C-alpha cells in the first residue's frame, strides 16, 4: 500500500511539477539603472533573461527554448545586444561588477 502511494505521488510531481515557480527581475521595457521589480514566472517560463543594449538593460522571465539570438532579435528589435539566460531565483540582476563598484567608490 505504501509503495503505491509513493508511486502515485512521484507520478503527480513528475506530471504537474512541485508548484514552485521561478522568480526573476522584470524590467521588460528596459532600464538604465538597477531593476528592482520582480516577477513570478509562468509555469512554461523556466529561465530569467538579462539583455543589454547600450546603457539599457532588459530583464524578464522567458522560456529557455526562446533564449537564442534570433528569437530575441525579433522580439526586441535592437541593433546590437548581449544576453544571458539563467535558471535560479533572481539570477538576472542588473548588479554592477565589482570593478565598477570600486571605481565609483574611489571616484
Automatic annotation (TrEMBL):
Keywords: Disulfide bond, Glycoprotein, GPI-anchor, Lipoprotein, Membrane, Signal. It is found in: Membrane. It holds the Pfam family CD59. Residues 1-21 form the signal peptide. It is a lipid-anchor; GPI-anchor. GO terms for cellular component: side of membrane. InterPro entries: CD59, CD59_antigen_CS, Snake_toxin-like_sf. The keyword Phosphoprotein does not apply. This is CD59 glycoprotein. It comes from Stegastes partitus (bicolor damselfish).
